[in-house]
Amino acid sequence: MLALTCWSCKTEYPNLPYNDIESFSIQDADGKTLSASIVNDQIILYWPPLVEQPESITPTIKISELATITPASGTAIQLQSDKPITYTVRAQDGSSKNYTLVFQYNQPLVQAKMNLLEGKYYLSYPKNEPISIRGENILLDETQTKGYLVDKDGKETLLSFYAAPQASGIVFNTPEDLKPGIYHIKLISGRYTVLTDPFEVLLPTLYNVIKWQDMFYTGRKGGDLVLNINSREAYELYFKADFDHFIAVDNLNNEYSINNVVFDVAAMTITLPIPVSVKGDAINTLKMMDKNGKLLSVGNFNISLN
After folding, report:
1. Banded model confidence at residue 91, pLDDT cuts 50, 70, 90
2. Could you check whether the bond before residue 126 is cis, i.e. omega within 30 degrees of 0?
3. C-alpha to C-alpha distance for 107 and 48, rounded to whole angstroms
4. Which of 85, 150, 166, 190 could form a disulfide with 101 if both were Cys (CB 3.0 to 4.6 A apart)?
């Protein structure tokens, strides 16, 4: 009778209906705890700026009493996937709720500027120099940072890296078929796309054509000035088809047109007939001009005249 009385007094409680995620946290690369924000059915995890996103995380998850969660707390999750990551919390009474993990990269604003003097880039031979930009907050991950050369018509050419990107700057190789013209560089780094100011690509400087290092030239007014060719290949590749004449600037800043110039690539010489009318006693600048009077290249020299 006593046992029967006790059994009849036992209270039965309903299964709990709670299926919430109460907290979600991970450890970053330095061992610091990062806690996610739980907003409705989203787990929003903010990753620190300028720190490479990991391929996987192992979260610690706290859920409602007597509920279960799939995947379980402490299970490694791969982030490098196109599929959304979903957690399912099932309450004691069998009801369930799905949560989607949203991985937010807390990226500061990216800035980029061309690292060029007066916005000019000169082609060179036999290989063009790399081109660099100065910046801020550039992501180091080469899968998230890309550079494109954009011409005046909007055509984009993907640039390869000369060196690994840095947060404060990046260096790209230039295309082998780069032509003179006006360009921008479009930098994509994470969530940001930045377009640099325009810059001008010019033909090689005259030092690629005229040998100057360790050479001292002296000419005579009314006579022929013989210069040495620095690179036959540079001359033939960039200038031979369009060159027409030189313009010489003397040390008094007067300009003189020099025609009938002879390029002897076999002898590796350039013969310039110096006008007798030159007033100064030196030529400080030479300009290569095309048939339409357009400047091809320029170089500063110190050529003494008698």
Report:
1. very high
2. yes
3. 8
4. 85
Which domain-ending residue is among 144, 177, 202?
Answer: 202
Strand partners, 166: 169
Domain residue limits at 21? 15-105
The residue whose two tokens read 């979260």 is: 59
Q: Is the predicted pLDDT of residue 302 greater than 90, yes or no?
A: no
Closest C-alpha among 148, 140, 141, 137 to residue 111: 137
Q: Is the dihedral of CA 178, 181, 187, 193 positive or negative?
A: negative
Contacts of 3 (CB under 8 A, 6+ apart): none
Q: Are 135 and 123 in contact (CB under 8 A)?
A: no
Grouping H, G, I as helix, E, B as strand and the rest as coil, residue 233 is: helix
Domain boundary among 105, 130, 155: 105
The residue to which tokens 């791969």 are assigned: 78
Tokens of 95: 């009801």
